Amino acid sequence: MADTIRVATWVPSSALLGDATETALSLHDVERGWRFSHLMMTLTQIETREALAFARALGDLLMERGLVSRGELQVRLNEARAQIEENPLPKVMLARGGDKYAPEHNVELDCLERLPICKARCCTFSFCLTEQDLDEGVARWDYGQPYWIRKRPDGYCVHCDPETYRCRIFEHRPFVCRAYDCREDGRIWLDFTRGILASGEPAGTQGRGGQ
What we know:
Strand 1 and strand 2 form a beta hairpin. It is built from 7 helices and 2 strands; from the N terminus they run H-H-H-H-H-H-H-E-E. It is an all-alpha fold.
């Protein structure tokens, strides 16, 4: 059951986030989350009914033509159920990762010195949080797209300061942020060593490290 998702409750903390105005949960956020839940419930119901109808029709057709007996079909059905139980699929998008505070998961880069050049372009990338990130309740995720990092309308992560480009939750930043290495990422640097930025506006939508 390694892929089982535990949903953590997000508890706003001005002490951790520093800016109380960013921690307020708006009605829009709640409504967007409910819309996502209702949409997924509707799609699941539609697809389940369609799959059930198809399976019944196929089973009846095979038995009518004498290609398979009801007993044989039941045996295969039990085998398929067992295989599905052994390999459950995750219900939401959740990144994998170990302990984000472990040294081996933290890439060392001179980020602060490069911010005036890159303007935190990596903070426009989309990625999912890990279970550890959710349990901490610090990094904010998109209620309409669990559990992707939440962004501002300008495309930047909500935790990226719009003036300094510094991370407001740096000590608790997500696992993906810690493990990400921009040195060979062509979306950011044309030449990392010489500090030459790649062309294009910092509005990337793909995840860090191909996430």
